[in-house]
Amino acid sequence: MTNSKSYEHLKEEILESDEIFNGRVIKVTHDKVRLPDGETSYREIVHHNGAVAIIPVHEDHLYFVRQFRVPTGEVLLEIPAGKVERDEAPADTAEKELKEEIGAVSPEIRKLYEFYTAPGFASELIHLYIAEELKFEAQALEADEFLDIEKVHVDSLRSALEEGKFRDAKTIIAVQYVLAHL
């Protein structure tokens, strides 16, 4: 065990990077790395621009979206979220996604946390925001978005969490935040 605060002794150096796929949302590379002990290994990496997720709170209710997710094969109950476009600030994405998905605007959208979704193989960083004092307008869904809005009273969150009604990490983190702070 070392007392080094720099953690340089843990870093891996990318020696080669082969692009396997480059799509609209992700890029996948197969990288050869030099390990801290000098040996080599390989890493499969999903590169992602990042995303935002918003906790919309209004009059003791949280607003969620229910939508089908092809990778899971399930309809999930989630907080509003969306990917950050290139050259777009996460705060701007949060405002845009709040309006698109639940038709709401907020005078103050405050950043709470940033977290990686799956750091063992993906670079996706989610920026978690909270939006209060919502004003509702019309949804502005994108052409390929199909979802239902569902509001849940804060008093029902703990039982919904314990019953497994939330199955994605960003929503579980959001619900835990609300249970601890609101």
From TrEMBL:
<dbReference type="GO" id="GO:0047631">
    <property type="term" value="F:ADP-ribose diphosphatase activity"/>
</dbReference>
<dbReference type="InterPro" id="IPR015797">
    <property type="entry name" value="NUDIX_hydrolase-like_dom_sf"/>
</dbReference>
<feature type="domain" description="Nudix hydrolase">
    <location>
        <begin position="47"/>
        <end position="174"/>
    </location>
</feature>
<protein>
    <submittedName>
        <fullName>ADP-ribose pyrophosphatase</fullName>
        <ecNumber>3.6.1.13</ecNumber>
    </submittedName>
</protein>
<keyword id="KW-0378">Hydrolase</keyword>
<dbReference type="InterPro" id="IPR000086">
    <property type="entry name" value="NUDIX_hydrolase_dom"/>
</dbReference>
<dbReference type="Pfam" id="PF00293">
    <property type="entry name" value="NUDIX"/>
</dbReference>
